[in-house]
Amino acid sequence: MTRSERLEQIYTIVAQIPAGRVTTYGRVAKMTDGATARMVGSAMRQLPAGHGLPWHRVINASRRVTEHGGAIDQREKLRAEGVAFDAKGRVNAELLWP
């Protein structure tokens, strides 16, 4: 599988995450043909402006938003969809998709 095919797979999966739900980089990777969690994170960073994919619904394995330049925006987008964070910044496991 080529890199571009793998990216397309990742983006197709991310596009399916419903509003108000989240998934992890690792879960997305397991749904692909050979991607790793790190590759999924890299794919999210490479999204062009105005892409429309719900990148903000992909979080890390500890069910937290990974600290990066867009972390504040990501938390705000998730809160706007009804996703709550506990005192430690984790999302409730019941919100994990699929």
UniProtKB/TrEMBL annotation:
Domain of life where this protein originates: Bacteria
InterPro entries reported in the protein's UniProt record:
ATL_DNA_repair, MethylDNA_cys_MeTrfase_DNA-bd, MethylDNA_cys_MeTrfase_DNAb, WH-like_DNA-bd_sf
**Gene3D superfamilies, alphabetically?**
Winged helix-like DNA-binding domain superfamily/Winged helix DNA-binding domain
Domain Methylated-DNA-[protein]-cysteine S-methyltransferase DNA binding positions: 8-83
Task: Kindly indicate whether the keyword DNA damage belongs to this entry.
Answer: yes
- Keyword annotations from UniProtKB, A to Z: DNA damage
Name of this chain's protein: Methylated-DNA-[protein]-cysteine S-methyltransferase DNA binding domain-containing protein
Q: Which organism is it from?
A: Modicisalibacter zincidurans
Q: What PANTHER family does the record point to?
A: 6-O-METHYLGUANINE DNA METHYLTRANSFERASE, ALKYLTRANSFERASE-LIKE PROTEIN 1
